[in-house]
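We emphasize that the prediction below concerns an isolated chain of 334 residues; any contacts that depend on oligomerization or on bound cofactors are therefore not represented. The input was used exactly as deposited, without trimming of termini.
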Amino acid sequence: MTGCQQQKPAAPAGAGMQGMPVRTVAVSMAPVAQASEYVATIKSRKSATMQPQVDGRLTLIRVKSGDHVKAGQALMQIDPERQVATVESQKATERQKKALYDYNVTEDERQRKLFEAGITSRAVYDQAEQSFANTKADYEAAVAQRKTAEEQLAYYTIRAPFAGVVGDIPVHVGDYVAPATMLTTVDENKDLEAYIYIPTERSAEVHTGLDVELMDNSGKLLEKTKIDFMSPQVDPTLQGILVKAPVHTPLETLRTAQMIKARVIWSNTPMAVVPVLAVMRQGGHLLAMQTQVTLGDTVENNYSVIAGLKAGDKVIVSGTQFLVNGMPVIPLGG
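Result of the prediction step, given as a token string:
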């Protein structure tokens, strides 16, 4: 014989289990920064590439990379021997032209007096005047050529255009240099800027005034600043948009061409922040319920929650390794 037996409904998950003491906290709303991190390069607003204005053999390098120099300080010396000879030759030519000019000054005055006394003809006097004018022009040209040669002589000494820090020096004593040769750079290590390249897919979001956090390679915050320049063009090589942000960190901390981290803050949106998984009330009983959430960035020791929780929900912050879904819990406070 067979009989019929009514099937009992399945016991809910966690039935018969003793409540486990847990600590809870209320879900709260807090502004969470939506940000992206990029590599930034520190550059000076005032920077000069040192190139010679003459060619010749490099005979002396007076500085080394990283030296702090004053405006007008001599950095390098190019062999000036050939130009010194040119200057001396121009001086000799100038003296020769000066002697002839001085003679014609006297001769012109003498011919004028003779002409006024009726001793010489007008043609003779005019000839003396012409000779005087020619020698005067020759002498003035010689003076100008001598001054030009002396000015060029100064080009053989490379001097700092302003106070700053010497960059890399790729040349060596004995190298032959020309106006196209890069000798070094001088950067004024103040009024610094952070150069940041933003990907083109963010072009609709980037604008001046965006907050930027500058950090060293260990993640330490150096300073907070704002974007004050945005290039109207896309860099064809990097396919990014150049933005700049002023840097006010002390000079001892940052140097020109140094690479650091830059965190661009797109927005600060109020979001639920929780330290662990959520707990929900069901049927008047407190049960540990596993809830699927979408996490955002971290805020100190908390996760930001994009979806899955709302303000006022309770989350368990202790004993999570012993919990199972639907397990009764007894809040200890919070």
